[in-house]
Amino acid sequence: NAGVMQNPRHLVRRRGQEARLRCSPMKGHSHVYWYRQLPEEGLKFMVYLQKENIIDESGMPKERFSAEFPKEGPSILRIQQVVRGDSAAYFCASSLLRGSYTQYFGPGTRLTVL
Amino acid sequence: GIQVEQSPPDLILQEGANSTLRCNFSDSVNNLQWFHQNPWGQLINLFYIPSGTKQNGRLSATTVATERYSLLYISSSQTTDSGVYFCAVEPKETSGSRLTFGEGTQLTVNP
């Protein structure tokens, strides 16, 4: 049973470009979470999605960031017009059900903005 | 929002030593997980433990939900145990399922 998959593992963008990060949850999981880890810091929640629905986006920056989890295909975290402060590790997690269930984390995507 | 405090922030051990890491949280929780972030940045699930005690090899964890703390025990530490240990909780009051992470304990195990 494959774990949570994320790609790319490393992404380099220049200021002003767009970054697209992909996450495929564990088989059978329909709940996806995105977290961001800035350098030398802990992880911070960004957004929680179910298929075709955003459930909680209270941790998402108000501008330039968006997320989706379509009926088919992976979840996508999109960052438009990246700035140096967006450089971070972005982790995706999935769970079987909502609530008191283990969240399993992917290997992360390390975004570097030049 | 809920506060999660981990101690100590840094810990240096000799191989073979035992250690206890602590996580205090400020409110009732539905979910508590311990993670190990290895030097390559991967987050590894250690325990899902909102209450009670669990053991997995040299690692064990205890959560006392009524007193709002959890402990992670590492026995006979090895150099591969090095990395950052995070505690993360899901507060009971949230409608979603987001985890709030502590700042972590940086563990270094020397040979």
Key traits:
heterodimer; A: 114 residues; mainly beta; 7-stranded mixed sheet; 4-stranded antiparallel sheet; 0% helix; B: 111 residues; 6-stranded mixed sheet; 5-stranded antiparallel sheet; 11 strands
Outline the structure in words.
The complex is a heterodimer of chains A (114) and B (111). Chain A is mainly beta. Chain A is built from no helices and eleven strands. Chain A has strands at 5-7, 10-13, 19-24, 31-37, 43-50, 53-56, 65-68, 75-79, 88-95, 104-105, 109-113. In chain A, strands 2, 4, 5, 6, 9, 10 and 11 form a seven-stranded mixed β-sheet that branches. In chain A, strands 1-3-8-7 form a four-stranded antiparallel β-sheet, with no helix packed on it. In chain A, a hairpin with a 2-residue loop joins strand 5 (43-50) and strand 6. Chain A is globular. The model of chain A has no long low-confidence stretch (mean pLDDT 92). Chain B has 111 residues and is mainly beta. Chain B contains no helices and eleven strands.
Describe the structure concisely for a colleague.
The complex is a heterodimer of chains A (114) and B (111). Chain A has 114 residues and is mainly beta.
Describe the protein's topology.
The complex is a heterodimer of chains A (114) and B (111).
Chain A: E1 5-7, E2 10-13, E3 19-24, E4 31-37, E5 43-50, E6 53-56, E7 65-68, E8 75-79, E9 88-95, E10 104-105, E11 109-113
Parallel strand pairs in A: 2-11
Antiparallel strand pairs in A: 1-3, 3-8, 4-5, 4-9, 5-6, 7-8, 9-10, 9-11
Chain B: E1 4-7, E2 10-14, E3 19-25, E4 29-37, E5 43-48, E6 52-56, E7 59-64, E8 69-74, E9 83-91, E10 100-101, E11 105-110
Parallel strand pairs in B: 2-11
Antiparallel strand pairs in B: 1-3, 3-8, 4-5, 4-9, 6-7, 7-8, 9-10, 9-11
- What's the number of helices of chain B? 0
Please count the helical segments of chain A. 0
The low-confidence parts of chain B are none
Order of helices and strands of chain A: EEEEEEEEEEE
Shape of chain A: globular
Order of helices and strands of chain B: EEEEEEEEEEE
Mean pLDDT of chain A: 92
Mean pLDDT of chain B: 93
| Number of strand segments of chain B | 11
What is the C-alpha radius of gyration of chain B, as a whole number of Å? 14 Å
Approximate shape of chain B? globular
How helical, in percent, are the residues of chain A? under 10%
**Beta-strand share of residues of chain B:** over 45%
Biggest β-sheet strands, sense, barrel of chain B: 6 strands, mixed
Strand portion of chain A: over 45%
Regarding quaternary structure, what we see is heterodimer
Largest interface: A-B, 28 and 24 residues
Poorly predicted tracts of residues of chain A = none
Straight-line distance between termini of chain A: 37 Å
